Amino acid sequence: MAKILTDSSNLVLATGGGTPCYGDMLQFLKSVAASTTVYLKTSNEELTRRLFNERQRRPLIAHLNTELLLNDFIKKHLFERSYFYNQSDLKVATDSRSVETIVEEIKNNLSF
Fold it and tell me: How many domains does the chain have?
């Protein structure tokens, strides 16, 4: 990952939701001079709606057979991870917003 992040190319690196919570990964991501960490802040209700039909392709949640179980799982993980997520350079709310609107907000907050 270090090689990718120190490359001079402009890129977006999407990590898994738990990535910034392990070891010193968040500090590493934030230490790269030209990087901006972005938290796509999404409610647990919205995440439940988005993920319920996708869970068979996601080993961590494949066993959760009801929306209630999935929602509880998401609440727990958001609570545990919020300390790390809230250290992001940029926080963008995503509920009820189009991808285009979210991308535009991120672009408007980046310096090139």
Answer: 1
